[in-house]
Amino acid sequence: MILIADSGSTKTDWRILDQNVVVGQTQTVGFNPYYQDADSIANELSINLLPICQGEINQVFYYGTGVTNDEKAGVIKDAILKVFPTCSQIEAYSDVVGAARAACGRSAGIACILGTGSNSIYFDGQKTGFQVPPLGFWLGDEGSGGHLGKNLILSYLHKEMPLEIRTKFEEKYGIMDRLTVLENAYHKPFPNRYFASFSKFLFDNLDHVFCHDLVERCFLEFFEKYILKYPMCHEVNINFVGSVAFYYKKLLTKIADSQGVRIGKILETPIAGLVDYHI
Question: How far apart are CA 249 and CA 244, in angstroms?
Fold first, then answer.
């Protein structure tokens, strides 16, 4: 049987294939080898993945955030091998490779991720190529849920929110304390998840000009720092995967049009496309 995974910073979608038929699926928390070791990942998989695998897993194809080099891929492979010790093939790729295979299929295009984090890469229909390198949550992730949430919190702490939005914000989250934000930002794990959790507030209040303009600025920054630097950006489709891209697709398309680039697919999650790819 074949096990396919798509892992973001927040959640991981799993599919089990037997003779090209999906026979099982589940969802676990997201993983990131920059923040977790093989033992902690294996522990989560043993509890929430292993019980649904009714049969021997022979191959695993894992696509995930933080798989940026052989060392980080090794963390994922070691964790999977601890849970499936008889597995003969384990492949671990960056989540952006998964996005490319899921959204571009066999066609050339630029594949982007806009979820908790953000990323992009050129895909020639067979393999990934030129990439404007991502810089992670603190130095990059423009346009992502983490970036949207961080900008929203900054506007709150800097007292830049209009009164009506600030009132709604405090009704939902309570009065936000600066020290609480700093604790979550610098001392607790997964600060990107923490900040991304506030991005839904922006979506729920997108009809207000303040929230609309904040999201628009974040998306424009993503296009300017990444997409427009691809030499082929005006020649191929720009494809997206991720919850932020999916729910903000109307505004995202508006920004793309303003920059003279063409959007292709926008998928909430790449897992279905990855199943098709491996079948």
Answer: 8
pTM value? Answer: 0.78
The DSSP 8-state label assigned to residue 143 in this structure reads T
Q: Please, what CATH class does the domain formed by 107-137+226-268 belong to?
A: alpha beta
Residue 278 pLDDT exceeds 90: no
pLDDT in tens, 215-244: 999 999 999 999 999 999 999 999 999 889
Same fold, 2-98+272-278 and 145-216: no
Buried b (16+ CB within 10 A) or exposed e, 192-227: bbbbbbbbebbbebbeeebbeebbbebbebbbebbb
Distance CA 61, CA 279 (A): 12
Please state at what angle helix 163-173 crosses helix 145-157, rounded to 10 degrees.
Answer: 110
Over residues 212-216, the mean pLDDT reads 96
| Sequence-separated (6 or more) residues with CB below 8 Å from residue 95 | 6, 7, 8, 63, 64, 65, 67, 113, 119
CATH number of 2-98+272-278: 3.30.420.40
